[in-house]
Protein 1
Amino acid sequence: MNIREQYGIIIDFIGQVNFTINEESNLLLNSSKEEIIGFLKKLNIEGDDFHLLFSKANEEGFQYKLVDGNTLSKFKIYPSTSLFHKNIASYRKTDKFIVYSEAEKSFYGYVNQETFRNKEQREDIYLFCNIFSYKNFIKKLVQIGESSNKTNESFRLIDYYNSQNQTFLISSLDKRALLIKCMEFRFISSNLFENLKLFQESLEKDSKGQFSFFLKKEILEESYRWPSETGLREIFFQFEKIYEKALLNFQVYLNGISIDKLKGEREYLQSFSEIVSQILLKILAIPIAFAGSVFALSKINSGYLVIVLLIGLLASSIIINISLYNHLIDLKAISNLLVEKTKKIREHTFFNQNPSEKEEIKEILKHINSKISLVLNYVWSYFIFSSVFLCCIFLYPVRTAILTISFDKYFDFKFLNPTSITSILLIIIYIIHAVFILSSNLWPMTNEIKSLKEKINLK
């Protein structure tokens, strides 16, 4: 009979009877002697061997316990995962286990290094292999610690290992952690073998051993989150995250940049965002001043004063547009700088190896681009509406004011009536206003900025 068949017979039998484990870790079967003998025969164990394997657990004889603790036919049997995890120090890969899960009402078996749920072989259950991965992790730490005790090297991943107290000392200039060799496990559903592989790879990450500096720093940081009694276990559980943080900092070091410099890059881009915001506020203030002048002009009835103010408003419009053009020059210069900055970030080795580090910068650039788009849209809106505003809104108050002027005193031309004069003045104002804006490179300037805006990204 092979070991798998024995495993099936055992779980069939103990699944039919009530069983527990007492404080001495003895397996207690609530079954009669005859039933147990029949069970042993199925395992090809002679009935005469009953007394070598079982003894009475109490005087009434309703319970029988295994003489050899919880071991039967080379299988170590546990009635719960918590008891199975309580002390894993003696477990070996060559052992055979049967663990009952009360929560799932199932047996988990470990036979010839293969995992079973009841009688079905499963590769997606890591109850046993996680324990052996952790034990290998501890074994490697002990080796590193014992080696550190004998060396005088300035850097050691484990500064000291006390074999008597089974404690590991890990320290840096500003931190110190004393971690106990934890042999109590807990359930975790993921496959921890990957964490063991990462740990082994991290020790061979670079020929000069520089990566270990960063790994030690992250291990120390993680150790402060847990009690010293369970710290090593939790460090192993979280090792993938620890490794990723250490690798990120190591790549920053290799690429010759610092965390402060990375923060500076972000702050630099944020300053661009603030400058664009200031330009936008200045542009938004232009029509407010413009509207104020229009409102004051509409209240004046003197024809002479209206003409004077109209000419003044035309001059103001030219000055305003010069200011607007000046802001666009600033915006173009900023856009050029942003294109260069984003190009450097886009081509940088560190950011290519760590795409997640681009996310915050992408959000800043997205914010800047939206503001630039708003500026460009507003500029064209202002140009169109201010031109129409000059022609339409001024029509009535200007005509009304001009009607009060006696042109006969000054001119003898019959076509110089109030209506024609009003129309001529408005056409001149519109042409001067439109031509000046277009001739001041508004169209090519906004197109250039739009073209630059499209390059401000990390794609």
Protein 2
Amino acid sequence: MFNEIKIFDSLIEIKKEEHLLIRNKVVDFAKSLKGKRQSEEYWENERKASNPVKDNIIGKYGEVVANLELRRNLGFPNCKIDFEIREGREKGWNVDLQYSVINSQYPDVHVKTCDEDTHNLTMSFKNDKYSWTFQNQNANGRGGRDSLLEKNDTNELVVFMYVQGVWEDYIPEVRLVALAPWVKIKNLLKDPIIPKYKNIKKCIYLADLIKASNEQ
């Protein structure tokens, strides 16, 4: 199943206690990113992140839940989530879930998470329920590129998540939308429609994932 694009768009069941434990941990993590090169000013000015703390909360929450879901329902081993606070240029683009280190039969997985604000940011077409962004470069043109964009021959996967209401005390809506080999979806990358994000970010839209899945 790791060689095909899989569309799930399935709701993930999370207990309230489980949600609060994850939420509190990722909120603490996001608020601790105070290094010189990971400050809010850096994310806003160079990465063009509209709400850096919230973006980091959404992303890390999606990463934790993706690991839970892949383990529970798809047989992946349990992977330790990286909550290390790095400073300066130590910020890297390592794969999110390094399963191959635990069991070589399982590929490593990158996690992309969106919420309704991502849809608004990329101005997705009305028939697109979700869209996800990839960092192409910093605003100054130097660095900040997701290393995944450089990979042409890899067995790594990308899991696409949707989350909404993470910061609330009630159980949020969390969905596993798709799982896909990077080599089969790299050519689906598009520029955002909003001019100020072009060159800085690339996007993948759900409609394109569905189309590619149907054609494989």
